[in-house]
Specification:
globular; 6-stranded parallel β-sheet; 3-stranded mixed β-sheet; 13% strand; 9 strands; Rossmann fold; 14 helices; binds nicotinamide-adenine-dinucleotide; N-(1-d-carboxylethyl)-l-norvaline Dehydrogenase, domain 2; single chain; alpha/beta
Length: 295
């Protein structure tokens, strides 16, 4: 049986390595994104660069989208030049962007009218997880569509779970972003505390990571903290968007997130000070400012 033809929209920090992993797994991938150099990168990896969304999705069995946020998902999905108007009936649309659960629910409804099936399938694991194909993929939608998409997910990630109906993947991703932000904030506070105490920071973070304080966040971000290297990675701008999603979704169901709300404010403050383009490990800069340390 031949592999489904893939259209990939959004070849950024995540979309580029993820689409390349599908090419390595033998899939035919046609891509579209806004930056010329990312299209050249796809072509160099063995994919096909398209000139528009319509051209990318026309012959595709599966359309995968990986763009920043809800407004971009709506821009690429709807309208005469969008995916729903131009993909063929029976195609499967997998949105892997992190967006509001409601946008995913609305998209699934709109697509159903066009005979297009939808899964929301946001990911966790960062740029490194995308490159290494070890992402966690949290999926919302129908069981049968999930089963059809599973071989594709297996080329991109390691932990792949159907969480429930449309929007459920996004709800779980929102919880993921809450946990990651609070974890980074705790690590950043520990770093400033340890440095001000005169302890060898590298040694301290190593031993901390071997105990109950250890985490994937600490493993992946330790060098960012040690070297003050805040090249993204995952931009503060995107985490600000995600803290908005989780805060809003939690309010809708009556869940209190007191610590999450504080960290959301710290992320917003960092962004307001011009650090939105830095990696989210730059939460360290906010703690340093609060502590009167050099940044
Ligand atoms: P990015 O900004 O690096 O890439 C986004 C891509 O979307 C760009 O290449 C851009 O050209 C494309 N795009 C935007 N509007 C478009 C349009 N109208 N038509 C075609 N292409 C369009 O972002 P990223 O870091 O790759 O993140 C993508 C999504 O994945 C976000 O929702 C983010 O929250 C989520 N995510 C990111 C990470 C990470 O570590 N970077 C980890 C997990 C999840």
């Amino acid at each position: 049986m031949s592999l489904p033809k893939i259209a990939w929209i959004g070849l950024g920090i995540m979309g580029s390595p993820m689409s390349e992993n599908l090419i390595k797994a033998g899939y035919q991938v046609t891509g579209f994104t806004l930056e010329r150099e990312k299209l050249d990168r796809l072509a160099a990896a063995g994919g096909t660069a398209a000139a528009s969304i319509a051209e990318a999705v026309r012959d595709a069995d599966v359309v995968i989208t990986m763009v920043p946020a809800s407004p971009q998902v709506e821009a690429i999905a709807y309208g005469p030049d969008g995916i729903l108007e131009n993909a063929r009936q029976g195609a499967l649309l997998i949105d892997m962007s992190s967006i509001t659960p409601q946008t995913s629910v609305d998209l699934a409804k709109a697509a159903e009218d066009k005979g297009i099936r939808v899964l929301d399938a946001p990911v966790s694991g960062g740029e490194a997880g995308a490159i290494e194909a070890v992402l966690s993929i949290m999926v919302g939608g129908e069981q049968a569509d999930f089963e059809q998409a599973e071989p594709i997910f297996e080329a991109l990630g390691k932990t792949i779970v159907l969480c429930g109906p449309h929007g459920s993947g996004q709800t779980v991703k929102a919880a993921n972003q809450l946990i990651v932000a609070v974890n980074i904030q705790a690590c950043a506070e520990a770093v400033v505390f340890l440095e001000k105490s005169g302890v060898d920071l590298a040694a301290a973070l190593d031993v901390l990571n071997g105990g109950l304080a250890g985490s994937t966040v600490l493993t992946r971000k330790k060098d960012n903290f040690l070297n003050r290297d805040f090249k993204p990675g995952f931009r503060i701008d995107l985490h600000h968007k995600d803290m908005g999603i989780v805060t809003d979704a939690a309010r809708n169901v009556g869940a209190a997130l007191p610590v999450g709300a504080v960290v959301a404010q710290l992320v917003a403050s960092l962004r307001a000070q011009g650090d939105g383009g830095l990696d989210h490990s730059a939460l360290l800069r906010a703690v340093e400012r609060l502590s009167g340390a050099q940044v």
